[in-house]
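writing this on my phone so excuse typos. first protein, seq and then structure
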Amino acid sequence: MSSGSMLGGSPFMTTFTGLPRGSMSVETMMGSVYSLLNMFNYHVDMLPLLLVILNDAHCDVEEAYNRIHQGG
């Protein structure tokens, strides 16, 4: 895969299209993901997984926290 097919040449800058319409903004969602990273003392490498969990929890940080805490 050439770097020209990625935004800024970084695989982490690809477009995330999984946000439900009418949900929180990307900036707010990323802030929520970073909050979860800090709550669980996870490394930034866990960011994509937390983003998927938060998205699956319909952008509900408390629900995402509970899912992570319960392991499911």
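second protein below, same order as before
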Amino acid sequence: MVRNLKDELKDTAVTAYEEVKRLKKEKEITWRFKGNMVQYEFNEETVDILKQIEWSREYGKDDNCRDLVTEACEKEKEQIDTYRGYNRS
């Protein structure tokens, strides 16, 4: 139990570090078009979900893994709908 807690704390610290790194990186980027920024943010969110899925599988958190897969699918559908909306204009 203590080992699981240590692992979770370590993963939380790594996640926080990655978030800070991402925010610093975002600050440095200047976007030529808003669509590029939107796509970049979508990709970043997708990568974060995939990392969480990987962690969930590693630690046997199947329910969490299923929820994350569902979330990723919903985000992908939203992105496709958004893209279709831009192309209709």
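The chain is about 90% helix and 0% strand. thats all i got for now
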